[in-house]
Amino acid sequence: MFQRAISQSGSVLNPWAYVDTASAQIRARQLTRLLGYSAGDNDNIYNFLMGASAENITLQQSNVTTERRASESLAFVPTVERETGSGGEVFLPATPLEILKSGNFTRVPYITGFCSAEGKGLVSTIPPNTWDQVNNDFEGFLPYDLNLTIGTTESQHAAALVKKTYFGNETASIANVEQYIK
Predict the structure, then answer these.
(1) How far apart are CA 37 and CA 40, in angstroms?
(2) What integer is the mean pLDDT of 50-67?
(3) Residue whose C-alpha is closest to residue 76's, from 91, 90, 88, 65
(4) Which of 158, 125, 124 is CA-nearest to residue 141?
(5) Strands (DSSP E) along the chain, which ranges?
(6) Which tens digit of pLDDT belongs to each residue from 126-143?
(7) 75 with 63: CB under 8 angstroms?
(8) Neighbouring residues of 114: CB distance < 8 A, sequence distance ≥ 6
(9) Residue 155 is inside which H or E element, if any?
(10) In the prediction, which pLDDT does 78 show?
(11) Which of left, alpha, beta for 106 (phi over 0: left; psi -120 to 50: alpha)?
């Protein structure tokens, strides 16, 4: 399929780039409720979403909340498929990490990269009340891939250290976030 690949601004191993199946189903149910539909089983949800307008889905998807951590800003990302609704070929048969560990993928020349201040474009879309959440619960904004359990001494210590490193004794805000995203 691919002869070479470039991954710019992220990888399949980023915590925001994959979600487990149970979380994906919860998010799909949230979306259908936001669109005014309430159904019990996955087939009904699938059929409803396939018939919903792309415009309505796009308008409502940002209102779907994520369960894990505040740092997961994208509600709809790839998940493992056991089967497809159309009976077609499964795109992602296992988690990205499982696939990489198994070695069951096509090896091609691969380049990865990122840009300086890459998150700067997203900062302008952060609602003002989110800054209150950041300052009141900085721990909830730690990256998921640190594998810390929220509420533990280790997690609280990491949050305090990250906050001090990037924001010093200042309150995190749009005015000083640039030093965090560099």
Answers:
(1) 10
(2) 87
(3) 65
(4) 158
(5) 5-8, 110-113
(6) 777 888 888 888 888 887
(7) no
(8) 8, 9, 10
(9) helix 153-167
(10) 92
(11) beta
Give the helix/strand (H/E) hosting 159: helix 153-167
**What Cα–Cα distance (Å) separates residue 25 from each residue in 20, 77, 119, 145?**
9, 12, 28, 22
Higher pLDDT, 157 or 67: 157
User: How many angstroms separate the CA atoms of 164 and 1, rounded?
Assistant: 46
Concatenating the DSSP letter of every residue in 32-67 gives: HHHTT---SSHHHHHHHHHHS-HHHHHHHHTTPPPS
Q: Is 15 exposed, middle or buried (0-12, 13-18, 19+ CB in 10 A)?
A: middle
Residues in contact with 170: Cβ distance below 8 Å, sequence separation at least 6, in sequence order: 176
Give the pLDDT of residue 115: 83
pLDDT at 72: 59
Token reading at 29: 């149910």
Contacts of 155 (CB under 8 A, 6+ apart): 139, 142, 148, 149
User: Cα-flanking dihedrals φ and ψ of residue 150, to 5°?
Assistant: -55, 135
Residue 35 CA to residue 57 CA, distance in Å, equals 8
